[in-house]
Amino acid sequence: MLIINLKENDTVDKALKKYKKKFERTGVMRELRERQAYIKPSIKRRKEIIKARYKQQQQSN
Question: HSE (CB half, 13 Å, CA atoms) of 43?
Fold first, then answer.
């Protein structure tokens, strides 16, 4: 459960913005997307290696 601390003069828009930001930081949506389909650990590792190579290549340029 998320608890949002508000000041007396905060508007509903500010409260929603704070809620959305806090909800995003918890990573619930990211986890739900990952759980939609099972990905084998070997494939996850392979994707991470490819991503790391790409990042390293971008930094060297």
Answer: 4
- Cα 11 to the chain's mean position, in Å? 26
Lookup: tokens for 13: 């828009």
- How far is Cα 53 from Cα 30, in angstroms, rounded to an integer? 23
> Are 22 and 6 within 8 A, CB to CB?
no
Average pLDDT over residues 28-38: 92
**Separation between Cα atoms, residue 18 and residue 12, nearest integer Å:** 10
Three-state DSSP state, 3: coil
Give the confidence band of 53 by pLDDT, cuts at 50, 70, 90: very high
Residue tagged 């003069």 (tokens):
9
Q: Domain residues of the chain, as ranges?
A: 12-60
**Using CB atoms within 10 A of its CB, is residue 15 exposed (0-12), middle (13-18) or buried (19+)?**
middle
